[in-house]
Design goal:
The structure holds two protein chains of two kinds. By secondary structure, chain A is α+β, with helices and mostly antiparallel strands. Chain A has ten helices and five strands; from the N terminus they run αααααααβαααββββ. Classes of the chains: A alpha+beta, B mainly alpha.
Chain lengths: 301, 188
């Protein structure tokens, strides 16, 4: 190998001649660490080189042909491959559809759950004075706490004083809820204690519940009343609203002063109407059944 | 060689689910796929099995053909791997065809009997080589791939490709009587 004209070994000769047949002699010479000229010169110097080149070329030509596949067999094999590919594509498409369906189901479930949560939240926010809101004033008053802080808040927001189990607590809540007594020239009802019939009383009281109605501007100054803030109407049942509107001071009940509060409440699970009259710093609380019969009368101040 | 651009266009359509394009591709290449398998495996039955596997693999994997190489390079790599896998399975089965060249083909699997003696000589010559050597010879002399392409397909260096091709040709040249004593070649 060190001699420029030394012949190649048989394996080296085959590799270089084979590379020469394929047009790859230059790369082969480089891999052998020789120049193309040196390799060519040594190939020429190798005895039998030309014959071996011809033999390798003949072998190459033989190898260039492979047994052919029968057309029918080829068509069968090809069709089988395409069918398999089609089946696989269909299976993949089916899998994709199935996965998409599962994803949609999951998303729908999540969306439904979200809607449910939002709906429940909204319902809780808008729920009228039910268990949570209504129990607060009772607890607060009965435990000696601030009736105003809880009971009036519930009444103001819900149009009702709330649920009470104790009539005294309800009275306290009504007083706390009621506004201060109006001035002498304000709308005041100064009713003779028993000179008017209950029907008249009811009619008078009815006008107080509807300050915007024509009846609220009666010409009879004695029938004018202070107009307490109207309770929100949407949180009462229709019957409760009617009762609140129509009830007044029953016959033979000596109450005088200015009506400063008219509200609904629930006492021991039953709806009641609460009227608060104010006079000279004193307040009288009437608690009536929805049919306007007096259930309780309390005085404060 | 093949019209590579035409093949690549067909391959893209086939990858998009065009069955007719896939059929055209397989039709264009099935003969040479079989030839490669036949050269690597040395007998008709195994070659047919490997051809079927190769065409199935091409059909199934066409969606993953990304066009970075020529379709033909990709397809013959698939075919070569199918044939080498079949060869390994055959080695595990230890069939006689492992060491003996084929002496008769399966009826109906080859087009004609012309040149049968030549084919048997080639099979006999190549039977002395390992399937990996036969693969290099087939890719070069049957498909006309250059050394660099073969190196990519077989995942070996171009120098190794050159060596394997020369040994395959030399084995056949020796068997055909061009050299009285064959040089030492790797055998199965």
């Amino acid at each position: 190998m060190t001699n420029e004209h030394a012949p190649f070994e048989p394996d080296e000769l085959d590799e270089l001649l084979s590379a020469e047949l394929d047009g790859e002699l230059e790369a082969a010479a480089r891999d052998f660490g020789m120049s193309l000229e040196d390799v060519t010169a040594r190939l020429r110097a190798t005895p039998g080189g030309d014959e071996r080149r011809a033999a390798l070329a003949a072998a190459r030509d033989q190898l260039a042909h492979a047994p052919e596949l029968d057309e029918l067999v080829e068509a069968r094999v090809r069709a089988k491959a395409i069918r398999a590919a089609d089946d696989e594509a269909a299976a993949r498409a089916s899998d994709r559809r199935e996965r998409r369906r599962h994803v949609l189901q999951a998303v729908s479930g999540i969306a439904a759950a979200a809607v449910l949560v939002v709906g429940v939240g909204a319902a809780l926010r808008h729920e009228p004075s039910s268990s949570k809101a209504t129990s607060a004033p009772v607890r607060g008053i009965e435990s000696g706490g601030s009736a105003r802080a809880t009971g009036t808040h519930a009444a103001t927001n819900n149009g009702s004083l709330g649920n009470f189990s104790d009539v005294r607590a309800l009275g306290l809540a009504a007083v706390a809820k009621s506004p201060v007594e109006p001035t002498a020239n304000g709308a005041a009802i100064v009713r003779g204690s028993s000179t008017k019939s209950s029907t008249q009383n009811n009619a008078t009281a009815s006008t107080t519940a509807h300050p915007n109605s024509s009846g609220a501007t009666t010409d009879n100054p004695s029938d004018r009343i202070a107009t307490p803030p109207p309770a929100p109407r949407d949180s009462f049942s229709l019957a409760q609203r009617d009762a609140v509107a129509k009830c007044g001071v029953p016959r033979n009940v000596p109450v005088s002063g200015t009506l400063v509060l008219r509200a609904a409440a629930v006492l021991s699970g039953r709806p009641v109407v609460v009227l608060v009259f104010a006079r000279n710093g004193r307040k009288t609380v009437l608690i009536e059944a929805p049919n306007c019969t007096l259930k309780n009368l309390q005085q404060f101040g | 060689m093949r019209d590579d651009e035409h093949d690549d266009a067909l391959a893209r359509r086939a990858a998009d689910g065009d069955s007719r394009a896939l059929d055209a591709l397989l039709r264009n290449h099935s003969a040479l796929v079989h030839g490669v398998c036949r050269r690597i495996l040395g007998n008709a039955d195994d070659a047919l099995d490997a051809t079927q596997d190769a065409l199935l693999a091409i059909a199934r994997k066409i969606g993953s053909f990304d066009g970075r190489s020529k379709f033909s390079t990709w397809a013959y790599r698939v075919a070569t791997n199918a044939a080498l896998d079949e060869s390994r399975r055959r080695a595990r089965r230890r069939l006689p065809s492992e060491t003996l060249p084929e002496t008769s083909g399966r009826a109906g699997t080859e087009a004609s009997d012309t040149g049968l003696a030549d084919r048997l000589d080639v099979d006999a010559a190549l039977a002395h080589l390992t399937p990996e050597y036969r693969a290099a010879v087939a890719l070069r002399d049957l498909l006309g791939m250059d050394y660099a392409e073969i190196a990519i397909v077989l995942d070996i260096s171009p120098g190794t490709v050159r060596s394997r091709i020369s040994r395959g040709r030399a084995a056949l040249a020796d068997l055909l009587g061009n050299r009285e004593t064959p040089s030492e070649h790797p055998t199965t």
